[in-house]
Amino acid sequence: MNKLDYIKERLNEARLRDDLSKVVTDVDALIPQSETEFDEIQKFGLYPAERCQPFVTRQGTPFYQLDNMAMVPNGDTANYLKYGDYEFRQLEILYNMPRMDSAEAHFWLKDNLFQKCRVDARKKTEYKAKFRGMERADWKEIQVEWMKYCLMLKYRCNALFRKDLYACSGRLPVEDATKTRYASNLFWGAALVEQDGEKFYFGCNVLGKLLAQLRANNGKLDYKLPEDLHVFGEKII
């Protein structure tokens, strides 16, 4: 089975399609029509494992700071992520803020998770449940553009992140989703698979591709966000 047929067969799996439909509007739009499309940000691909640099959300593991859930060490204020008057230790917090079209939701997130705290999985679930009806109707369409903004902020603020990013130059960063099970695992990341005796990472790997672009462009990514996107009721800085 060739690579394109493998991807199409996997994306016919009902469970995988159901998971992806929670993250994107059109699952079929993720299917590449040629191997050259593997490099497109929101297309599935099979990436040779020997050319990839995987990373996971576990402190002490290689390239840990590439992960959105990675924590800046407590007290390392030089590397805290700064947005306006706020400082926080984990990019995932800022990324989730404008998902809800509600200043009330943003202040709740600030009071429970923001600034120098880390993401508590239970609080994150509570946040989504409490304000579910306030999620932006266009979130699935703008989430990648907002991620670009967040990654540029992290690049600017966090020397630990920059060090890990350039340390894997020449390899494609991959958020390793091999041992995870959540709806977005194969959208933002990729899982290790074997195809015709070779090992590949299978997924969209959106985060990894954005990291590769960020590295190639020395911290810059082109993005476009809607005018009404806001944090705490104020336009994005």
The proportion of residues forming helix, as a percent range, comes to 25-40%
Q: How many strand units?
A: 9
Query: Going by CATH, what is the homologous superfamily?
Result: YbiA-like
Number of domains: 1
- Let me know the average pLDDT: 92
Q: What topology, given as strand order, has the largest sheet?
A: 1-7-6
CATH architecture: Orthogonal Bundle
Which regions contain 5 or more consecutive residues with pLDDT less than 50?
A: none
Secondary-structure element order, N to C: HHEEEEHHHHHEHEEHEE
What's this model, at a glance?
The protein has 237 residues and is an alpha+beta fold.
Give your account of this protein's structure.
The structure is a single chain. With 237 residues, the chain is α+β, with helices and mostly antiparallel strands. The protein has helices spanning 3-10, 14-21, 91-96, 103-112, 121-130, 139-157, 159-167, 185-188, 206-216; strands at residues 45-48, 52-55, 81-83, 86-88, 172-175, 191-195, 198-203, 230-231, 234-235. A hairpin with a 2-residue loop joins strand 8 (230-231) and strand 9. Helix 4 runs antiparallel to helix 5 (121-130) and helix 6 packs across helix 9 (206-216). The mean pLDDT is 92.
